[in-house]
Amino acid sequence: MIRKEKNMSLWMLAWPIFLEMLLQFLLGATDTLMVSHVSDDAVAVIGISTQLFNAVNILFAAVASGAGILVAQKLGARKEEEARIVSIMGLKICIGIGAALSVLLAFGAEPIANLLQLSEELQPLGKTYISIVGGGMVFMAAMVVLSTVIRNTGDTRSPMYAAIGINVIHVLMNYAFIHGVVGFPAWGLTGVALSTTISRIIGTIILVVIFRKSFQKRFSWTDIRIFDRPLFRETMKLSWPLGVGMSSWCFTQLVIFTFIAILGSKELTARTYMNTLESFCFLVGFSIAMAGQIRIAHLHGSGKDQVAYWSAYRVMWIGLSLVLVNTLLLYGFGNEALKLFTSDSEIVSLGVSLLAVNLLLQPAKMLNMALGNALNAVGETRFNMMVGLVSMWVIAVGLSYCLGIWMHWGLYGIYAAMILDELLRGVLVLFRWRAKKFIVKSDAKEELKNATMVF
Question: Which CDD domains does the record match to this protein (predicted)?
Fold first, then answer.
């Protein structure tokens, strides 16, 4: 059913997203914590492999994001059947891409592990983990598009409930597969990979059941044949810049991780632990930004552009406040938190020294995320893409190498480059939003429509 306007408020959308993201964060932290009891080498493999999976996920995540934005806009304009068709096409495309990636990762794990610059002692673990988790990428593709579409209909609670069930199952399987309980062998890192893939299969089944009830007209298997060329063009118009931008971010992160791998396994492990802890910093802010994108897309679709414009600033200030509080909390308790993951004093010392730098990184990320998502919501995905391509490759990657490797600043130089990249992109999207280009375009379209009607 179509969501009522009262359910499209920022907080009503945000709190289920927050709980879902919190569960995902806890799942990632639990994974890292459980694997840390196996070895620090296993943690390093998960860290760099996650960057790889994030990069390949982009192909279907971009289609899902474009479809989700268009679904929200169509529902805002009270065009539910068009929204439903967009969601079905997005699902078919993502599953196709996910299936192709699954085959590639399952059978190409060895050369991929070599490309990631994994050290000789990490190679066997890397091949196993990449082949198993990568082989189930099609289920990740299905989960991404299904949860994205469901959220953009205004139903942010159902993906949250699904996440609860999936995470509980995953943690239980992790424990059983890693340590060998309830009759299972002690598989270690292989057990984590199997647990991840099985959880995603179960998650896909749950989300398909929810998706079938997301629109007034139920999904049926005959809908697989649906294809609407104009709506496909609209979806791709939003999706391809998102795909390029998101791919750019993930591949730059992957390149930066290879720089860190060059520094050494301790630096790579420390960065993996920091990734887990940093997720806590912007968890609430990210949820607010995602909720803001859904709300702004609905408002833009319904023609309420001035309300959408000011909503973005509310999202930005709320997000910045929450991120700053969370970052300060992490700064205060980070030492104890890191000791939960490892007893290696060198890794703990390195991680603690980066917590102060994190006070600058996370607010810059929040500024970029809040207003960047707002621009995506109103269809300005190309601007974000162009800004991201230049800044991420020149500043984030280029400076990371210069400061971190060439000038021997190590992780501190890499963090400095990431801060400058996030800050530059944040300032540029702020100026773009203040220009109100999307309102000017909407007014021009309305004037053209009125003139045509008069004629």
Answer: MATE_like_8 (cd13134)
HEC-encoded secondary structure of the chain = CCCCHHHHCHHHHHHHHHHHHHHHHHHHHHHHHHHHCCCHHHHHHHHHHHHHHHHHHHHHHHHHHHHHHHHHHHHHCCCHHHHHHHHHHHHHHHHHHHHHHHHHHHHCHHHHHHHCCCCCCCHHHHHHHHHHHHHCHHHHHHHHHHHHHHHHCCCCHHHHHHHHHHHHHHHHHHHHHHHCCCCCCCCCHHHHHHHHHHHHHHHHHHHHHHHCCCCCCCCCHHHHHCCCHHHHHHHHHHHHHHHHHHHHHHHHHHHHHHHHHHHCHHHHHHHHHHHHHHHHHCHHHHHHHHHHHHHHHHHHHCCCHHHHHHHHHHHHHHHHHHHHHHHHHHHHHHHHHHHHHCCCHHHHHHHHHHHHHHHHHHHHHHHHHHHHHHHHHCCCHHHHHHHHHHHHHHHHHHHHHHHHHHCCCCHHHHHHHHHHHHHHHHHHHHHHHHCCHHHHHHHHHHHHHHHHHHC
Asked, for residue 116, whether it belongs to a domain, the answer is: yes
Domain-located, residue 298: yes
pTM of the prediction?
0.79
Residue 139 CA neighbour count, 13 Å, CB half: 17
- pLDDT per position as a tens digit, 187-205: 777 888 888 899 999 999 9
Summarize pLDDT for 286-337 with one digit per residue, the tens: 889 989 999 999 998 888 899 999 999 999 999 999 889 888 888 888 788 8
The Cα 411–Cα 261 span in angstroms is 11
- Number of domains present in the structure of the chain: 1
In a domain, 453, yes or no: no
Is residue 391 included in any domain, yes or no?
A: yes
